[in-house]
Amino acid sequence: MFTGGAWHPPLGRAVQRVINPATEEVIAEVALGDTRDLDRAVAAARAAFPDWSETSRQTRLDLLRSVLDIYTRRIGDFAAAITAELGAPRSLSEDAQAPAGVGHLRAVIEALEAFPFETRLPNGDLMLRDPVGVCGLITPWNWPINQIALKVAPALAAGCTMVLKPSELTPLSGLLYAEVLEEAGVPPGVFNLVNGTGPEIGAAMAAHPDIDMISFTGSTRAGKAVLRGGAETVKRVTLELGGKSANIIFADADLETAVASGVKTCFQNTGQSCDAPTRMLVERSAYDRVVALAAKAGSEATVGDPEQPGPHIGPLVSDLQFTRVQELISVGIAEGARLVTGGPGKPETCQRGYFVRPTIFADVTPDMRIAREEIFGPVLVILPFDTEAEAIALANDTPYGLASYLSTGDPDRAMRVARAMRAGTCNVNGAYFGAGSPFGGFKQSGLGREGGALGIEDFTEVKVLAI
C-alpha cells in the first residue's frame, strides 16, 4: 500500500489474483487491504491536508506538469498493463486507453491556470472556492487510467488530499500511477493508494467519518450503495454511473458512415464503456437499409489476441462479465428479437479466454430487457421510429442519461433533437467530445461532472466573505 509517501506492507492478509482475460492465466498477485489499511491511509491524508490545501496555484501546476512528464515517459508501461489486465487490444491501449491519462492531465492543467478560486460578486462580497478536504476516489476496471486521471488530477488541482481505491480487477494501472506520483514528488500523505474490494474497502470509504468526499465511477447499483454509505456523515458524493445510450439515425443522414461508426463505437473496448451507443434508433423509412448495413459491419468485426495490434475486439474482463453477457444474449433471443449477427457462445477462433461474439439484434421493442438493461458487452439493439418526437421519446425512455448520439443531414434538427435528449453529452454526426469538457449524466447515470474546470469545481466548497 502507498500511504504517507511510502510503500508499506499491508495490514490485511487477503490477496487478489490478477487474471489475464485473454488467457485465463494468473499474471500477478496484489495484496488487498482491510479497514486498518484504509484508516492508515485516511490518517495520512488528513494530516497532509492543512499544508497541501494552502499551497499556491503555481505549486500545484508544477506538480501536475511533473506528473504529466513522467506519465508520458512511461505511457508504454500503462498500455502494456491495460492490455494484460483488462484485455484491451494493443492498438486500443496505445491509441486510446493510456493516452486518456495525457489528455485529462493537460486539460486539468489548462483549467487550473485560469480557475477562479476567488471571485468578486456583483454585490461586493468575495466568493472563495476552498478544497473540500480528504477525498475517497473509487475507480472502475473498464477505462482504468481514464478514470484515475479524471479524479486524481482535479483533486490535486483543487488542493485536496486523497485515498485511491482502484478496481481489484485492474489494479496494476493504479500501482503504476502511484509510482508516477511518487517520482513526481507528491508530498507525503497527499496521495494514498489502498487496494481492496468494493464491499469491504469501498463501503468503508463511503462511511468513513474522516473522508469528506467520495468520487465514484461504476455501476448504478454500486453508486446507490455509496450514496447510502455516505448519508450518515452527509458526504459530498460525485457519481459517474451506468448508461444505455441512444444513437438516433434519421433517414437523411449519411447512412453508411453513421451505421459503421455506430457499430464500431458500440463494440469498442468490447462494449465495456458506460457511454457506448448500445441502442440504435432508426427512422422507419431507412430501417431495412440500416439493419443490412449494421449486419455487414457486425459480421466484419473481428475478435482476436489483445497482444496483437489491429482493430479487433478483445475479451471481456472476467468470467463473471462473460456469464452476464451470455445470459442477456440468450434473453434477447428468448424475447423474440431478430438476431442479425453474432449470438451465444465464443468465437470459433477464441475458445480460451472470456471472448464473446459481437452481437446485433433487430426488431427490438422498448420493453425488452436487452433494450433497457446495461449489458456491458459488444451487443447492439436496433429499434425503429416514425417521427422525430417518437425518436426523442424512445431515447429518453430509460432510467439512465449519460450519453447520446445523433446523425442527420438537417443542422436545425440536429440542434433541436440534441437539446431535447436528457443526457450529459450528445455526439452529433460522428463527433465526440474532447478532454476538458464536463462529463457526467442525468437521472441514474450520476451526480456531478468530471473533466476540466467543472471537474476541479466538484472538489471545492464555496465560501462567501462579506467584509
Automatic annotation (TrEMBL):
The keyword Isomerase does not apply. InterPro entries: Ald_DH/histidinol_DH, Ald_DH_C, Ald_DH_CS_GLU, Ald_DH_N, Aldehyde_DH_dom. Keywords: Oxidoreductase. It holds the Pfam family Aldedh. Residues 16-464 form the Aldehyde dehydrogenase domain. It comes from the Bacteria. The active site is at residue 240. GO terms for molecular function: oxidoreductase activity, acting on the aldehyde or oxo group of donors, NAD or NADP as acceptor. Belongs to the aldehyde dehydrogenase family. This is Aldehyde dehydrogenase.
